[in-house]
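Now for my pick.
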Amino acid sequence: MRIASVEDDASQAEQIRQLLEEAGFTCTSFATGSAFLRALRDQAFDLVIMDWQLPDVSGYELVSWVRQHSGHLPPILFLTSRIDESDIVAGLAVGADDYLAKPVRPGEFIARVRALLRRAYPETVRDDDLIRQGDYMVDARRRVIALAGQIADLSPREFDLALFLFRNIGRLLSRDVIEQAVWGRAMEAGSRTLDTHMSRLRIKLALRPDHGVRLTSVYSHGYRFEATASNE
């Protein structure tokens, strides 16, 4: 899973990156809040680890921005040397999911990260390249998606798009983020390429709540792909 680390101290950023990568995660580090916000234009993350004191913007403001634009995902763990109760309460109130005091203790740090990911994505079971959600099984290595045991007939681009959706379940995704991730570029204004591919996936994969997922179009923004109870 992909994790963003927003930490301006180079040595601490390197420690966080090493700990996460040794635990099997992919970590991208950002030294400023503005660099992190620029990255969100064309990247999606499963978890954000946020330093509370940054040179250009406060962690408080960044958490607030992420929650306003991306909803309750991704989960956010803020790291802080400020352990006054008022600071912690303020951080959690604005949308952070957990906090950890500095200096980082490796075992506790990784345990908190894993716990947040389990809570945030309880319906998605991923083992390296294998994703199970509802009636779907997505095998990234073999590049196949099965619905109730039946392999779907997808083009390579349709598979790439579907894989991106399943890897970002529960997240509000802008058109630019999806296009950059799947096509490697943003489409021209007015292009219907993304919408056409989404329409095909709805049909080919029967993306419906009774199969455990829901794909919805969000006006003027993009799409949300989320888990549902199979009896909805």
Summary: The two ends are 28 Å apart (CA to CA). The longest strand covers residues 213-218. The mean pLDDT is 86.
